[in-house]
Amino acid sequence: MAELTKTKSGAPKLLKPKRSSFSSRLKRHRSLIPFVIPAVVFALIFSYLPMAGVVIAFKDDPNFGRYPVFEALNRSEWTLENFRILFSDPEILRYVRNTLIISVMKIVLLFPLPVILAVMVSEIRNKHFSKLVQGLVFLPHFLSWVVIVGIFNNIFGLYGPVNNLAAALGGEPIYYMGEPGWFRWLVVILSGWKEIGYSSIVYIAAITAIDPALYEAAKMDGATKMQQIWHITIPAIMPTIMVMLIIRIGYLMEAGFEQVYAMLNSLTRETGEIIGTYVYRLGLGSGSRDYGLSTAVGLVNGVISLVLIISANRISKKRMGTGIW
């Protein structure tokens, strides 16, 4: 607890509380340690142990097909050629641009929508109708991207309802899923349809934690519903919004591999190929086993993501006073 002391002039001064040591905090929360151990073990095995594989990015074409892993790495020479190709190949730079464009479109167009949906759901007074709405908007999240792409491929196909309606109005049919100009917009539309409802769960939980007395006091002062939302709800959930925004910025270089891979085809590769699908095509695609270059691309991608999330967290701490850590 904070303690009071006196300055030389005799005025009272509030001292900052002393921070407890790590060992004391560990001892105080020792009952929670068994619940943390499985998560730590999982992270060590599946997140930290594979990081040793980044050495492949500094090796010259290790032959994993002929030799065991460690022998193949020992036989190959150290090199920076993979990084030289990475920063000089215009094709890779185009994939980086596609990734950034799709990610920025998702942030600008989709990030505010879960907040708006959460506010709307929280204002529904009929509990049964509220649960029905939540169930309907949450459901698409549990469908795989293969199923969703198949559904929308039929909807936007040449003989789908969208083109049938366009033909009835005198328009020409368009294969939207194979149109480069439409690909990024369809990625954003499908991603929003699938994830907006599930992403709103965090904001709904934050809204339910707001003290109802604040709304009662606002009503007594004559505040309208929009004024209550703008001056009470939004400021109260702003720390949650900032944390989710920081996390989303950390994924700026990851535009949704599963979705884009399921939607991508030879017609849309120019505007739709992203870093994730390019790395997959290099390392595991048919006829290609360029492990060194694919690992180098993934490593640079990870470093950029780390810098982005640290920078976003620092800016949030300075401007908003809140962050992830």
What does this structure look like?
It is a multi-pass membrane protein. This is Sugar ABC transporter permease. InterPro entries: MetI-like, MetI-like_sf, UgpAE/MalFG_permease. It is found in: Cell membrane. The protein has 325 residues and is mainly alpha-helical. The protein is built from 16 helices and 2 strands. Helix 4 crosses helix 16, helix 12 packs antiparallel against helix 16 and helix 15 runs antiparallel to helix 16. The chain is globular.
Question: What's the short story on this structure?
Answer:
It holds the Pfam family BPD_transp_1. By secondary structure, the protein is an all-alpha fold. Helices cover 66% and strands 2% of the residues.
**Beginning-to-end CA distance, first to last residue:** 22 Å
How are strands sequenced across the largest beta sheet? 1-2
Coarse shape: globular
Task: Please count the beta strands (DSSP E, at least 2 residues each).
Answer: 2
SSE string, helices as H and strands as E? EEHHHHHHHHHHHHHHHH
Radius of gyration in whole Å, from Cα? 26 Å
Structural class: mainly alpha
Strand content: under 5%
Identify low-pLDDT runs.
Answer: none
Mean pLDDT: 85
Helix content: 55-70%
